[in-house]
């Protein structure tokens, strides 16, 4: 059982380096069209901004706005369009997290405060479901 944790996963393949005599490592593959991206904490300032930026950068992504505030989440999903929807999630509820991670290609974890937690419940749920292979954690400076 392996999970991949990336601090920064580019959504586009970076342009090829000018000229190099050394063999360059393979570039990360571009997420498939219609990939499902779950933004945890999507109803907050950082998560909402992240979902909006992802929507503009890759309009083909299906963006799931995960959070506790249904009104804010549905409002943002409406602004982002048909490819977006709100999913009610409490990151403290393991069963709810695991259900939300089904069929998700990328998890962007902006829900806080998670910096002081001994274990990352989101990572544990991703490993348990064996579905989400890419996790991006964003946090503000403390």
Automatic annotation (TrEMBL):
Pfam families: Sacchrp_dh_NADP (PF03435). Residues 14-33 are annotated as: Disordered. InterPro entries: NAD(P)-bd_dom_sf (IPR036291), Sacchrp_dh_NADP-bd (IPR005097). Transmembrane segments: none annotated. Gene3D superfamilies: NAD(P)-binding Rossmann-like Domain (3.40.50.720). Residues 37-131 form the Saccharopine dehydrogenase NADP binding domain. This is Saccharopine dehydrogenase NADP binding domain-containing protein.
């Amino acid at each position: 059982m392996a999970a991949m944790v990336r601090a920064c996963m580019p959504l586009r393949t970076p342009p090829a380096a000018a000229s190099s005599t050394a063999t360059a490592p393979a570039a990360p593959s571009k997420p498939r069209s219609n990939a499902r991206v779950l933004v945890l904490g999507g109803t907050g300032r950082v998560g909402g901004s992240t979902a909006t930026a992802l929507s503009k950068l890759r309009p083909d992504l299906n963006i799931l706005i995960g959070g506790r505030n249904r009104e804010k989440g549905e409002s943002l999903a409406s602004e982002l369009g048909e490819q977006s929807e709100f999913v009610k999630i409490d990151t403290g509820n393991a069963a709810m997290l695991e259900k939300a991670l089904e069929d998700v290609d990328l998890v962007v974890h902006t829900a806080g405060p998670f910096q002081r937690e001994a274990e990352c419940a989101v990572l544990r749920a991703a490993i348990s479901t064996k579905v989400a292979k890419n996790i991006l954690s964003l946090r503000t400076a403390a």
